[in-house]
Amino acid sequence: MATFKAIRVDKADKGTTAQLTQFDEAELMDGDVTVRVEWSTLNYKDGLALTGKAPVVRRFPMIAGIDFAGTVEASSHPQWKAGDKVVCTGWGMGETHLGAYAEKARVKGDWLVALPQGLSARDAMAIGTAGFTAMLSVLALEKHGISPKSGPVVVTGAAGGVGSVATAVLSKLGYHVIASTGRASEADYLKHLGAAEVIDRNELSAPAKPLAKERWAGGVDSVGSTTLANLLSMTKYGGAIAACGLAAGMDLPSSVAPFILRGVCLLGIDSVMCPIEPRKAAWQRLASDLDRTKLAEITHEIPLAEVPDWGAKILAGAVRGRIVVKIV
User: Fold this and answer.
1) Which of 175, 225, 275, 282 could in theory staple to 249 by disulfide, Cβ–Cβ 3.0 to 4.6 A?
2) In this predicted model, what pLDDT tens digit does every residue of 254-286 receive, in sequence order?
3) Which first-to-last residue range defines the signal peptide (predicted)?
């Protein structure tokens, strides 16, 4: 059987190892669609998997990578045929199912979304799970009734992947975006994306009061922990925060006060097992509501061989915007 290049994660005496190697096609897992992977991306979860800093990988050996875009090579699924351009994000890839940092992937056809018209495979991976999660968050806020007329919206971790896309999309939709970041040097970058204000994350890092001064109608939070608790305490009556990340931790040291005294809602966002119809809707909105010029400006390209090194960088907070990985 043929072999192909892949980033393989193996269990080691101390933690895990991740390295570029040759992978045997015979070892690919079950699936009814085989895809020639052309582009992938680097998300925070990928960094955790590559470094072993969290137990993201749950079978070994594992091909890392939770997102890919490419061309169908072979299919027994009725919806897909050879030559179709497809996108796949989540579904346990890089965790329980062999993932995207490889020249070939075999997955279930039910996991795939057609590459939206007007987006290249590279564009799709410049968006990736981070941008897809950002759009799911925006859609959740809209469903709750938040609009630009509702008042300002806050985005935490704004210089990261989720935050950058959320800031760009929300500003294009007409929202007054307050971007929170721990990197003061990124203020000009965030304003260029459309942020109306940039605040220091330290404003949201002290222990949260049950209720604080109302500052925003809604928000997108990729940080969690005390930051999320502060966002909730500062949300206006009837507002909502979409929670989609845990960069600062999984805890939530809050109180019920925002919920029972201001009618605030906490909207949970999951991109991994998200059903297929919301996936399609989010990708179509990304194709129309994300400024492609800004997407290009926030994107940095790396080759497959550099993925392990960049995995450590994203965990260290040393990555701005989005990273695309050129597979072939």
Assistant:
1) 225
2) 999 999 999 999 999 999 999 999 999 999 999
3) none
